[in-house]
Amino acid sequence: MNHESPRCQCIRSCRFAPLKGEAFCAMHMNQCPREAPLSGSEPAYEPDRWNKFKEIRVTHNCYSYAMNVIDSKQIEGCQKDPECNVLFHQPGFGYKKFNDTDPKTCPNMISRFMGDNSTIVPSAFELKCPKGSSKIALIVDEDQDYHYLRQDSSGYFSQKSGSLPVTNLDAKGHKIFDVELANHDFKNGKKSRLNYDRFCGYFCVPRNRPLYMKSGGYRYTKRAKKSKA
């Protein structure tokens, strides 16, 4: 899925480099034959809503963000703990908690989060989600971690890695048009060893009804750095 050098995300066959900070090369910047159509229920890209307050930023992860859930219980837990050491939301109610050796495969992760909310349905990049729902994407580094991204009302995707701030850029600093063609290789020496090199698919998540979310497992404080809470 990932490539050593950033490339245009318009179509798979395009090998040109994207413009700085953009998802497309010069040829496709103003005209791309593909799109991920909007349902009208996509959340707005509002990074300050997630980044401004520590009680929200450090207690909500990629899963919370993709589901567009800010949980008051997470915030209260942080306010009661001087170190704000609160377990993240994790998919898979009824499954055993994750540990360092559990594989984060596509089938494993899909069964977990779709089992929690049966109203989530598989989709595809060029399919429009049903009214009242919007698109998320799942990628994994099977040995390390899973990661969710969501499509915003802009048509682009954004993400939140663990307790890190929300961003609308991929690992190489480019906007995310197609998650499958974006770059998710966060390896950076000792600071990070994550490379989300498996694309698991697109899914439609309801935005007009409550979603089941449960905290537990491991708390990912930084990319590739795990600590039990």
Tell me what the structure shows:
The longest helix has 11 residues, at 106-116. The chain contains five helices and eight strands; from the N terminus they run αααααββββββββ. 15% of the residues lie in helices and 18% in strands. The strands form two sheets. Strands 1-6-2-3-4-5 form a six-stranded antiparallel sheet. It has a two-stranded antiparallel sheet with strand order 7-8. With 229 residues, the protein is an alpha+beta fold. The chain has one domain. The model is unreliable at 218-229 (pLDDT under 50). It has helices at residues 47-51, 54-57, 62-67, 72-80, 106-116, and strands spanning 121-123, 133-141, 145-151, 157-160, 166-167, 198-206, 219-222, 225-227.
Number of helices: 5
Q: Could you give the order of strands across the largest sheet?
A: 1-6-2-3-4-5
Kindly, what is the distance between the CA atoms of the first and last residues, rounded to a whole number of angstroms? Answer: 32 Å
Please trace the helix and strand order, writing H or E for each element: HHHHHEEEEEEEE
Mean pLDDT figure = 90
The Rg value, from CA coordinates, equals 17 Å
